[in-house]
Write a structure and sequence with these properties.
four-stranded antiparallel sheet; about 45% helix; alpha+beta
Length: about 625
């Protein structure tokens, strides 16, 4: 019966992945769309097809055939994933580890291309499909290996709950489905493989097991060098306490098996040799730091934001992982042989992850590097499910709620991201909470994102007074830019503004502006060429000035709102007049002698036309 349940669990995961893989087709852009996935992958076509591993110029030109608009001016070959070390010689930013594990899929794709008469160039659709499928295969393999570990310690039902929670209710579901060629999917399989082999080695040491443990540690490290800390897993398996007798026993176990340790070091070194040779071949040095301008700040870890922040925080996007934290206690209480290794690796990994310069880790649904810890965290999580499922009916219902809630939450997030109505890497809690459970977004949802303030419903507010309604039919002496050449309605906010333009200033005391009220600002705007870049846009904003400094600035992005119906983050239509507006709460620090400033600021290289500026004061009914 348990076997049938296990088959059913993994069949459900496989079916869900397959159906969504075919319908939510973000993976189609994985290689030709650029970014990390192409950086990992390009070793393969550069080595086996184009023969330009040291320059990548032919590989890049071939990729451009499938993505003609792609290209950057960072260097002479127009890419951000390689750096020129000598004229014509480039070093790939990424290590070769992912390419090694994508090699089987690449060879299958190449054979299919040759047999089927398809373009055998490394970038045609058959290569993308095979590489993307392999990403899911590694996730699926990781779940199988994880299940085998869990069955050593908890019931089959608790193991099933854990596998479903991780497989369909966590970040790894998103990565396997939407970003299948990323390193994290492969690491998700290698971590439990290392755990299983380490357990088997502890029970019956051998040279072969030691060698393959070294190979796994080397493979994990060459995929992401900071993952070298996984060496602590095999070294600490079986360590039960800090008593002197236990420490001696553990130490002598490894000393008595020193030949196996040598075999492990050899296995790890063999995995690193190709990378060392590549660096020597391209850069002239055996070791080369390829992440130019990127690095760690170990004195300023952003752990709280990384775990709990709305911008790709671990727990907001994979809340089921919180169960693992409670499960750490169970690991030690049950004297699990992996307990110390899991806790130390998780702590070190979390610290290192959130010392990186960009702790929001773009292109995911939560911090990507945390996903490879999930097989370790799953062991702790399984103990919690095991405890809940063996208690009363109420705790069993609670366990089911955790499981179904995690799956529903991640499924909704994937749907929302696919529709373009959430942007996890740069989100904030005002928008996060507002969008929970929504399948569509409206104008005020996006204004909430821009302002990081929940926009009130207009029907719950009442007008207190109007401050301005300016149609600019009469040229105000304070308005410096009026279009008299093209005869287009409205005033012009010039490109690349260095100061607040069209600024309207009001005295707080004179206008009797009170805390608890809202400043409502509206204007009609149009651009002949809108910007779809969320960080290079025109801003419409409100701020306060106390005589010495400006504070409490609150803005919306204008360019993406200039279309009939704003339905996703990257909207905007050229030559389209549209009302842009938002509500800004009166800052809690405001005093009667302070000033209210309403302004435009244009960060783009195109002017924007503004008309019918309106400023009102509202309060709740």
């Amino acid at each position: 019966m348990n076997r049938l349940k296990t088959i059913l669990v993994f069949s459900i995961i496989a079916i869900v992945f397959t159906v969504l893989f075919l319908s939510v087709d973000r993976w189609k852009a994985e290689i030709i769309g650029g970014g990390d996935s192409w950086g990992y992958y390009c070793y393969l076509p550069a080595t086996f097809i184009h023969g330009d591993l040291d320059s990548l110029h032919r590989t890049i030109e071939n990729r451009r055939e499938y993505h003609p608009g792609w290209g950057r001016s960072d260097n002479s070959i127009g890419t951000t994933i390689a750096y020129e070390v000598t004229p014509g010689t480039f070093v790939n930013k990424y290590t070769y580890g992912v390419a090694l594990f994508l090699l089987p899929a690449f060879l299958i794709a190449h054979a299919l291309a040759l047999i089927g008469g398809l373009p055998a160039d490394g970038h045609s659709p058959v290569y993308i499909i095979c590489a993307s499928i392999s990403g899911f295969v590694y996730v699926f393999l990781g779940l199988i290996l994880m299940y085998r570990i869990l069955r050593r310690y908890v019931s089959s039902t608790a193991s099933h709950f854990t596998v479903l929670s991780i497989g369909l209710g966590s970040l790894i579901f998103y990565l396997g489905l939407q970003r299948p060629i990323m390193s994290h999917n492969i690491l998700f399989a290698l971590y439990p493989a290392l755990v299983l082999l380490s357990l088997n080695y502890r029970e019956a040491p051998s040279l072969l097991k030691g060698f393959f443990i070294g190979c796994l540690v080397g493979a994990i490290s060459i995929i992401r060098p900071v993952e070298i800390i996984v060496v602590l897993i095999p070294l600490l398996v079986g360590f039960q306490s800090f008593k002197l007798s236990s420490i001696k026993e553990h130490l002598f176990f490894h000393l008595n098996n020193w030949p196996k340790l040598v075999a492990a070091v050899l296995g790890g070194f063999i995995m690193c040799v190709p990378q060392l040779l590549y660096w020597k071949y391209t850069s002239g040095s055996w070791l080369y730091y390829s992440y130019h301008g990127e690095g760690f700040d170990f004195l300023d870890p952003q752990i709280i934001d990384g775990l709990f922040g709305a911008a790709n925080g671990l727990f907001p996007y994979s809340p089921i992982i919180i169960l693992s934290i409670f499960g750490f206690y169970c690991l030690f209480k049950q004297k699990n042989p992996l307990a110390l290794g899991i806790v130390i690796v998780c702590i070190l990994h979390t610290y290192i992850t959130y010392c990186w310069w960009a702790t929001n880790y773009f292109g995911a649904m939560g911090a990507r590097p945390m996903s490879q810890l999930f097989p370790l965290l799953a062991i702790a999580m399984a103990y919690v499910f095991h405890w809940l499922l063996k208690k009363n009916v109420l705790t069993k219902i609670l366990a089911l709620i955790f499981l179904l809630g995690s799956i529903a939450h991640m499924s909704m997030l994937i749907y929302q991201e696919h529709k373009g109505i959430i942007y996890p890497a740069y989100s904030n809690y005002a928008h996060y909470w507002r969008m929970l459970g929504k399948t569509e977004a409206d104008y005020l949802d996006f204004a909430t994102y821009d302002t990081n303030r929940n926009q009130p419903s207009p029907d719950k507010l009442k007008l207190v007074k109007s401050l301005v309604l300016n149609d600019f039919n009469q040229v105000d002496s304070s308005i410096l830019y009026v279009d008299t050449v093209n005869n287009i309605q409205g005033v012009i906010v010039p490109p690349k503004s260095t100061q607040k333009e069209l600024a309207q200033v009001f005295s707080v005391g004179e206008q009797n502006i009170q805390k608890g009220q809202y400043i409502y600002v509206r204007a009609r705007a149009m651009k002949q060429q809108v910007s779809h870049d969320l960080f290079q846009t025109t801003y419409f904003g409100v701020c306060w000035h106390n005589g010495a400094k400006t504070y409490g600035e609150n803005t919306i992005r204008v360019d993406t709102k200039l279309e009939e119906n704003v339905t996703h983050f990257w909207g905007g239509q050229n030559n389209y007049w549209k009302d842009v507006y938002f509500y800004s709460p009166v800052d809690y620090r405001v005093q009667d002698d302070h000033k209210l400033i309403v302004f435009f600021w244009n960060a783009t290289d195109q002017p924007i036309f503004v008309d019918e500026l309106q400023i009102d004061i509202y309060e709740e009914k």
